[in-house]
Amino acid sequence: MSSIEETIKSLFSNKEDTKSIVFEWENGAAVIKTVGVNGLEDVKSALDSTKVQLPIFAVQSIDKDESVETQRTYFVQLPFVGENVKPLRRRDLGVLRNSINSTIDNLKAGHIHVTMEITNVDEIRVEELEKRLLTACGSHKPKGFKW
Amino acid sequence: PSMIGRPKNSPNAVFQPQHEFKCHIGEELHQFPFRYDEFKPIISCGIVQDWDEMIILLEYCLKKVPKFDMQEGKYTRRVVLNEPLLNPIKNKQKWFEILFEYFEFHSLVPQVQPLAALYASGRTTGLVLDVGEDCTQILPVYDGYALSNVMNKMRSWGGRVGGGDLTKFVANLKYESGWEFSNSGREISKKIKERLAYVAPNYWKEVELNAESSQLSRTFELPDKTTITIDDLRFKCGEVLFRPSEFLGVDYVDGGIDDLLINTLLKSPIDCRNDFSNNIVLCGGTALMPGFKERLELEVQSRILPPHLPTPKVNVIQQVESSYLSWIGGAIIGSLGLTTHYIFSREGYMESGVDINRPYSLNLS
C-alpha cells in the first residue's frame, strides 16, 4: 500500500490524529504536501497561491444533549487553484481530483461530504460550509461543528 | 481575428499564383487597411459563413504552428473543436467533414466554448458568461455537468450582441457626429472602444456628470494625427450591453446581459444557485471592459434577493486572460488523456459518418 493510501486511511479511520491532508500534482503523480492534526487551520496555512492543491480535512459535529453526546466526523474537500498559477497548469486540478477521489472510492475509506472550489484563503466561508454540511448530514442534525 | 481581405488591384498589392496568397488574413489586414476591397468576416455569431474561406484560414493557421508538419501531423494529431453553444447541426456536420475529409486529422474532440473556459479557470462548477466578438452566451455547469436546458444565447431579430456590435455602435455614432472614416473606420472604432470605453455603475449619474463638466472627455488621435474628443460615447458604448434594444434599435428577446444572467440564474435549480452566483466566470474580450465586472455584481445583487437566491452573495471572476480562456481550455482538454467517449476518430467517421445524435461536448467531470 502506497503512502498516499495509508494517509487517506488514517484520515478516514477516526482512530488516528490525522485531521487534514493537502495533495499536490507533481511530475504526473499525486503527492502529499502536508498532513495536519488541526483540520481547517492547517489547511489554511498550507495553501500556496502559486500551486494547484487538493486539501481534504475532517470536521467534528457537536451534538450534546442533557444525557447523550454524539460525535460524528464529516469530510470536506477544497479544490484549490492559486491566483498565480499559470493557465495551462490549472489542468492539474482535474487529474489530481480524479486520482484522489478514485483512490478514496477504491479503498472504500469513506465519503467526501462537501466540496467547495476556491482560489484564495478568503473564499473559505465557514458559515457556507456549515450550511452545506447540515444538508449533507441527512436526518442527523448536529447543533454545531468543531473546526 | 478571423477575417480575410482581398487586395485591390494596385501596384502595392501582392499577387501570388496560389489562391491562399491572394488574400491577407487576420492581423495582416490592419497593417494596410486601405489596400483591400473588402473585409470579410468568416465567422458570424459563432457560425461559419463561408467554408471555402474557412479552409484558407485553417491552412494559414496550421502553417503558423511551429514544428507542425502538415503531411505528417494530419494523420496523428487530435483536434479540439471549440464550438459555440447551440451550434446548428449542419454546421457541426460540415466541421466533421472538413477536418476528417479535407485535412484528414486523426481524431476530433468537440467541446463547447464556455465549458472549456470554465475548465481553464480551474473550476468545475460555475456560471460562464462568454461575451465574445460576435455573440454572448451563457452556460451553467455543476460539477462538470452542463445544465443544457438552461444554457442560452443573447438573441434578437437582427443578430446577437457582442463586441462587434459595440464597434459598429461607435462607428455609427461618430458618423452621426460628422466623422466619416474610410475603410479603416472599423479598426479605428475598435481602438476607440478598447482604449476609452467603460461600463458606468450608474448610467444616468454619468450622463449628468458629463453634462455638467468635461472631466469624462478624452482625446483620441487618428492615424492622420488629427485628434477627436470622445465624451458620452465612452459610457454609452458599455451601456449597449445592458440596454441593447434602446441603443441598437432592435428588439432583444432576452433584454440586456444582466437580464440574460439573472434569467439563467433563476431558471437554474435553487440548490445550485448559490454555487453559480459565487462563481460567475467571465470570458471573452468584451468582458475585460473596465467597470463591467462591478456593474454585473451590482445588478445581480440588487435584483435577485432571498428566497430566490438563498445567500445573496455574488462573486464575478474576471481573469487577465479572459480573451483567450476558451482557447486555453481547449489546449488543456487536448492535452488530457480523455476516454474514447469524448473522442471522435477519423476511422469511425469514414466507417459510419457523423453520429450527430451521440451526446457529446457537454460534460467533463
Automatic annotation (TrEMBL), chain A:
Domain ADF-H: start-end pairs: 1-134
One Pfam family it belongs to: Cofilin_ADF
Domain of life where this protein originates: Eukaryota
Database matches in InterPro entries: ADF-H, ADF-H/Gelsolin-like_dom_sf
Family annotation (Gene3D superfamilies): Severin
SUPFAM superfamilies for this protein: Actin depolymerizing proteins
Gene Ontology molecular functions: actin binding
Identification of the protein by name: Predicted protein
Species of origin: Naegleria gruberi
Organism lineage: Eukaryota, Discoba, Heterolobosea, Tetramitia, Eutetramitia
Automatic annotation (TrEMBL), chain B:
Pfam family, one: Actin
InterPro entries in the cross-refs: Actin, ATPase_NBD
Classification via SMART domains: ACTIN
Gene3D superfamilies xref list: 3.30.420.40, Actin, Chain A, domain 4
Superkingdom per UniProt: Eukaryota
Family of this protein: Belongs to the actin family.
Protein name per its UniProtKB record: Actin
